[in-house]
Design brief:
Blueprint lengths: L15 H14 L4 H4 L6 H4 L7 H6 L5 H20 L5 H7 L5 H29 L1 H20 L4 H29 L2 H33 L4 H7 L1 H15 L16 H19 L11 H20 L15 H17 L1 H13 L4 H6 L2 H21 L1 H25 L4 H4 L1 H22 L8 H33 L4 H33 L6
Helix pairs in contact: 5-9, 5-10, 5-12, 7-8, 7-9, 7-13, 7-22, 8-9, 8-11, 8-12, 9-10, 9-22, 10-11, 10-18, 10-21, 13-14, 13-22, 15-21, 15-22, 15-23, 16-23, 18-21, 19-21, 19-23, 22-23
Length: about 525
């Protein structure tokens, strides 16, 4: 049976006796030789052990600590995602309270984190697959915590930029372990629920970051409040490390001592492609010369060389990315959808926070409060979406992107018609609708994209999804920001015109995600291969 038709077996639902009977029958009938090796991924979910128990025991029952382990994963992943948006409202505080915080340094505080984060996502996932996900998770959280302390104690802008680069590398190492551990620990409907909770964490952390940052700056003052934006990670990081040793599964005994190929050439080529692609977008406002766009050409060249190398290297070795993953429509389309969706979703809070703080003189706290409706809608819908994605498949994502389009369209109308001190109140309902749509898009897409990925490749596959999201976010912020700032320049700072025009670009990206979802639904119905959990 083709992989697209296959539904993973739920460990909780299979009686032990029946399972063993089926297992031995399958073992007896399984062909050997090249024919058996053509599609090894079809049996990978059953062969991959979880935790430190033997494979057979893992097949009989799910890990009893899996839900506690999920909480630990969400804590670690949450602080990384929070730092993507929490710093936005702290930039004014950094500029006024830190010596050497030049406009260029402030820009690198944002873009350096994004570059370093994207650089290590796939290699970090590969490391987790090869040497142990718990080990790399702990290393990632520890490095992120130390880097956060360095950020908070930074004496000048240069040290803060360097510390943010280290923080981004740690985030890139940590994030793919989260999706890989969810892939490893959960099956069937439970996996959808787990990814739903992860999607809720993504949406809430991204949307609530400005609120947390605003609260901290209000509490500790403009001059030093930005330092506590980083210090807040310390207790969370320390608790996460301690709990990780207790509840996260260790490397299975069957895999200990196995040698893995790390494919250093592939890692370097992929890293060069990611950096060359991200750099001109994350530096679009500071790097005015059009020469920066030659880096996009260089990125394409590096990407082509990467593909050629992986195809050659993969004949006899274990490549950093198994290109056969992209033959699965659920994976390739899911990565593409995540890329264009994040290009439309992420810039919303970037330009909205600027308009509220700089245009309407909202405090950092009030600007953060404005994002709460989105966080509430996203958190609730992500949890619900994870529970029902097995019933509706990609159709749920179509509904979600339609709601995001409606919400963003309503935001544009509200800004154009009611731009003033009470704008925050007018935005409550549109942002709530957009948040609900986002919750029905991110977590179901994550679940469906990884639904047919072998567990042992969960880290690198999850890293690829995150790379798509980071690239999309960088492109979206650059495109929306370019239109937004150009409008401000031509209208002498009229945010009521610049904000709708910028968000109009976001609408185009979300519409592209909607088209991708519709195409997958239609093709799946025609071929009888709808994506499912």
């Amino acid at each position: 049976m083709a992989a697209e038709h296959r539904r993973p077996v739920e460990p909780d639902a299979a009686p032990t006796v029946a399972h063993h009977t089926a297992h031995h029958a399958a073992s007896a009938e399984q062909p050997s030789g090249p024919q058996a090796e053509q599609h090894p991924e079809q049996h990978s979910d059953q062969q991959q052990p979880t935790g430190g128990r033997p494979a057979q025991q893992q097949d009989d029952a799910p890990d009893p600590n899996r839900w506690k382990a999920l909480v630990i994963c969400l804590l670690g992943g949450g602080i990384v995602l929070l730092d993507v948006s929490i710093v936005n409202v702290a930039l004014q505080s950094i500029s006024s309270g830190l010596s050497g915080a030049t406009p260029e340094a402030v820009q690198w505080i944002l873009s350096g984190y994004a570059l370093a984060f994207g650089l290590l996502l796939v290699p970090g996932g590969r490391l987790g697959d090869a040497v142990g996900r718990r080990r790399m998770f702990v290393v990632g959280v520890a490095l992120f915590t130390v880097a956060s302390a360095l950020c908070g104690f930074a004496p000048n802008g240069f040290v803060l930029v360097v510390a943010r680069l280290v923080q981004g590398l740690a985030g890139g190492l940590l994030t793919p372990q989260v999706t890989a551990l969810i892939q490893q620990l959960f099956r069937g409907k439970e996996r959808g629920t787990a990814f739903g909770l992860f999607g809720a964490t993504v949406g809430i952390a991204t949307a609530i970051g400005p609120l947390v940052g605003g609260l901290l700056i209000t509490a500790f003052g403009t001059e030093n409040g930005w330092r506590f934006v980083f210090f807040v990670n310390l207790p969370v990081g320390l608790v996460t490390i301690l709990l990780a040793f207790r509840y996260l599964p260790t490397t299975p005994k069957a895999e200990r001592g196995q040698k893995h190929d790390f494919d250093p050439v592939g890692i370097v080529l992929l890293g060069a492609a990611v950096v060359a692609l991200l750099l001109p977008f994350v530096q679009s406002e500071q790097w005015k010369s059009n020469a920066k766009w030659w880096l996009v050409v260089a990125a394409v060249v590096f990407a082509v060389l990467f593909v050629l190398w992986e195809r050659r290297y993969g004949r006899d070795h274990e490549p950093v990315v198994d290109l056969r993953l992209f033959r699965r429509r659920s994976f390739s389309l899911g990565v593409g959808l995540a890329t264009v969706y994040f290009a439309g979703f992420t810039p919303l809070f970037f330009v909205l926070t600027l308009a509220l703080q700089s245009g309407l003189q909202y405090s950092a706290l009030l600007a953060g409060v404005a994002s709460v409706p989105f966080a509430i809608g996203s958190g609730i819908a992500s949890t619900v979406g994870g529970r029902i994605v097995h019933r509706f498949g990609r159709q749920l994502i179509v509904v979600g992107t339609v709601l995001v389009l409606i919400g963003l369209g309503a935001v544009i109308w509200v800004v154009a018609e009611h731009y003033g001190p009470d704008l925050g109140w007018w935005l409550v309902l549109p942002l709530l609708v957009a948040g609900i749509g986002s919750g029905l898009t991110i977590s179901p897409n994550q679940t469906l994209t990884l639904s047919e990925v072998p567990v042992q490749q969960g880290g690198s596959a999850g890293g690829l999804i995150q790379v798509g999201a980071r690239v999309g976010s960088a492109i979206g912020i650059a495109a929306v920001g370019s239109v937004f700032y150009s409008s401000l320049a031509s209208t002498k700072g009229d945010y009521s015109q610049g904000l709708p025009l910028g968000l109009g670009v976001s609408l185009v990206f979300v519409a592209a995600a909607l088209v991708a979802g519709i195409v997958d639904v239609v093709v799946g119905k025609v071929r009888g291969t709808e994506a499912s959990v």
